[in-house]
Amino acid sequence: MDAHNLKSTHARQVERVLWIVLGLNLLVAAAKYFYGLASQSASMQADGIHSVFDSVGNVIGLVGISLAARPADEGHPYGHSKFETYGSLIIGVLLLLAAFEVGSSAVGKLTSGVYTAQVTPVSFVVMVGTLIVNLGVTLYERRAGKRLKSEILAADAAHTLSDAFVSIGVIVGLALVVAGFPMADPIMALFVTVAILITAVGVFRTGLRTLSDHACIPAEKIVASGSTVPGIVEVHCVRTRGTEAEVYCDLHALVDPSMTVLEAHGLGDLVEARIKRDFPQVKEVLVHIEPYGADETAQGTED
Fold this sequence. Notes:
Elements: H1 3-39, H2 42-68, H3 82-112, H4 121-148, H5 151-178, H6 184-211, H7 219-226, E1 234-242, E2 247-255, H8 261-278, E3 282-291, H9 294-302
Helix pairs in contact: 1-2, 1-4, 2-3, 2-5, 3-5, 3-6, 4-5, 5-6
């Protein structure tokens, strides 16, 4: 199976997860928003709107993974995998918008002093039920993201978890409203806003590490793997870049200077195969063969 087929399989698996999560998020959003509308609960309506952001994030994820799955071409010789990273950053922006929406709504209610929520037992049934769904979706998507090494699933799982934080805040706020503290609803929403912002920072940090070509695998691990090939004297100058699921690596390998070009090339192929075996996420290894002791020989000639 070639790299393109592997990538297509990866994309199909990620897309399958995103479609499942999209359907669940739409159900959760509808339940919270329409019951919030019926009960005049601003916090439940806001939570429903926030869940819609989750659904939009799923759609962005589907577009991003579709673009990322395209094979390498003349304009993108390393492929399109970073489109998945771009999608995760857009989800981060959606988190910021969600934080603004929830926070501004809370501030508006606190400054106006108008609290219109009508809390009923059904309010708690809807909120607890959707919270359970959100937590289940988060766990499912996070596990899938780790298994598939997908940045966009990890970002979307964080987005869904932020929705769970909002739901918890709404539940606590509704309970305090029942206890006679109507101001608790918007106050809890402000705490939830902070939680969403923290989640957004984590999403941006992961995405920017990829876009800044941060090392994907510690160099010493690559050195240890490549050095196990018989005939390789030393491995150094290791560099890695790419996404968590698609890593590109280049390195220098020192060999016996008396080797023929064919023998040295064969060792380079073995190093490449060994590293790909030890690190399945590595899609390409560029091995630069150098003669061992060349620097010392050159210095001796100069002297």
